[in-house]
Amino acid sequence: PPYLNSLAQGAGKLWFGTAADIPGTAEQTDPDYLRILENPGNFGEITPANIMKFMYTEPEQNVFNFTGGDYLLDLAERYGMRVRCHNLVWVSQLSPWVTDVNWTAEALTAVMKNHIQTLITHWGDRCYSWDVVNEALASDGNFSSSIWYDTIGPEYFFLAYQFAQEAVEQTGKDIKLYYNDYGLENPGVKTTAAYNLVKELQSRRIKIDGVGLESHFEVGATPSLAQQVAAKQGFLDLGIDVAITELDVRFTSAPYYTASGEATQAQNYYDSVASCIEVGRGCIGITVWDFDDAYSWVPSAFAGQGGADIYNDTLQRKPAFYAIGEAITGV
Ligand code: G3I
After folding, report:
1. For 268-311, what is each residue's pLDDT tens digit?
2. Does the N-terminal or the C-terminal CB of the chain have fewer CB atoms within 10 Å?
3. What's the 93 CA to ligand 1 centre distance in angstroms?
4. Cβ(139) to ligand 1 under 6 A?
5. How far is the CA of 60 from the centre of ligand 1 (A)?
6. Would you state the torsion angle of the CA atoms of residues 143, 219, 274, 193, taken in this order, to the nearest 10 degrees?
């Protein structure tokens, strides 16, 4: 199949999207990369891999930089693609002015509120959705340590959504608010903890529209199709949407391009995408965490690992690409 987003659109109101680390990296000026990216048949959604994060958008306290985010939004809008804006409150990629100070809970809460509300207000519904809090949970289901949790306590999580909701209501626009994390792709302690966070937001009448299941996997070690269906169904049963937000399937060691390895990887991609199709309406999109191995985040994060994406490092489609097409069309 030639175009994965065309297929996804044909299968319903599903999108097929990608992360892009634009602007500020070699992707921005790579004509071969851009030829694939800038095609709504290929992608109906873009997630900025970095440029909307805290350290880039508020480099000094209350001094905001929207230039990079604007560039990415302009690019997406030129091709009719939606943007999942990413992210507002996370442990990583904070500015030194945030991490290098001993804040009181009150002062840091004010910092968080200002950051959340300024970004939501500025970009309005050019953002289809915001990942309000990113990766709050540890694998045991407790909140992870972060400057937000350690300073404010568990209430930081609920306050973040309350502040986001206030800003969305001020805009009068339809902007979805998401929780985004990894390790929610199969049933388990962490996934149950995420269900409980959603339920707690709902019981407090705080806006939560969906949960992003990152889906960063290792070849040959992904949850089964049935497990991925069950985990998604648990979120849908709460009356919210789910999306696959950061899908990739990495090899934990070379070689990355053997026929048998690529066949296993293709099956792993198939199962993840098929689980989204199988739960039906409510799983509203699939985003890969960039589409070619040359620009994957994996090798710089995990020495010796790679080959995670659906195009290889010379932008040739891998079996995983075709497997996604088959999962979408039900072939
Ligand atoms: O901008 C600097 C550049 O000036 C410098 O020369 C270069 C040298 O290391 O680093 C550049 O910054 C890098 C940044 O990406 C921008 O490309 C950082 O080192 C690098 O650590 C950072 O990695 C990002 C990572 O988040 C940070 O945790 C990845 O690109 C990004 O793909 C990744 O994305 C996360 C999601 O936000 C949340 N879920 C997991 C996912 C993968 O880790």
Report:
1. 999 999 999 999 989 999 999 999 999 999 999 999 999 999 99
2. C
3. 8
4. no
5. 19
6. -10
CATH number of the domain encompassing residue 320: 3.20.20.80
Helix axes 155-171, 105-123, angle to 10 degrees: 30
Q: How many CB atoms lie within 10 A of CB 207?
A: 17
Residue 278 known to be catalytic: no
ipTM > 0.90 for the complex: yes
Whether 181 is in the pocket of ligand 1, judged by its Cβ within 6 Å, is no
Q: What is the pLDDT of residues 71-98, one digit of tens each?
A: 999 999 999 999 999 999 999 999 999 9
Q: What is the C-alpha to C-alpha distance for residues 191 and 73, in angstroms, rounded to an integer?
A: 31
Question: Whole-structure pTM over 0.90, yes or no?
Answer: yes
Q: Which domain holds residue 49?
A: 4-329
Is the Cβ–Cβ distance between 223 and 185 less than 8 Å?
A: yes
3-state SS string for 204-270: CCCCCCEEEECCEEECCCCCCHHHHHHHHHHHHCCCCEEEEEEEEEEECCCCCCCHHHHHHHHHHHH
Residue 218 CA to residue 256 CA, distance in Å, equals: 12
Which residue CA neighbors atom 43 of ligand 1 most closely? 297
Domains identified in the chain, total number? 1
How far away, in angstroms, is 50 Cα from ligand 1 center?
Answer: 6
Mean per-residue pLDDT over the chain, rounded? 97
- Enter the DSSP assignment of 103: -
